[in-house]
Design a protein that fits this description.
- The chain has six helices and nine strands, in the order βββββαβαβαβαβαα.
- It is an alpha/beta fold.
- It has a domain of 142 residues: Luciferase-like domain (TIM Barrel).
- Strands 5, 6, 7, 8 and 9 form a five-stranded parallel sheet that branches. A two-stranded antiparallel ribbon has the order 1-4. A two-stranded antiparallel ribbon has the order 2-3.
Amino acid sequence: MPGSGTPGRTTPRSATGRFVDRTKLHHVGFTGETFSVTGPSITPRPPQGHPLTVLRGDDPDALPVAARFADVVRVAADSVAAAAESRERVRAAVAAAGRDPERVAVLLDVETLLGTGAGERLRVLDTLVPAGTASGPATLRHVGDAGELAELLRDAAEEGAADGFVLAPLVLPSGVEEIVDDLLPALGDVWVRAPYDRTLRGRFGLTRPENRYAAG
């Protein structure tokens, strides 16, 4: 990849001055339905080891797959208590798959509609839903004050309901603005860290995975 020095050159990646150590190349050797790849991969291993693998863990058929492969598992639940049960199911499945549950984060989906008049806004939105279409909550939902939502999230985390949350605003783009302008300040600096202080994996509190090619 381009270096920061002389144009047209690359920056060495090791003390030897070599960009690639040919003794450590790993051949891709992939053959798929629409394309194939031969030859070695010369891309250095990224700081995170590999990108996070995020899978859903709600469905019984999906849970074993998530337990085996996921770094992050998303779940839906209609209450904090139900979320805690879902998290325990995920952690038990991860342990049964021979992995450390502490190395897998469980995120709870939370639907949000914040601000003054949020309840009335939701009623208006419900009138716009076509007849016969489900409009009820798909997971835990909070409609109303951002400070109350902040308390709900803190309590849910303390009660072991989730390691984090996926906020799903019911209205776009104003719902995102409500989260940024109202919810994040209510959560405070302990929960909301600077956005670029570490890798995404580090922000989840997950360790860098072992290199599968490293000598045993």
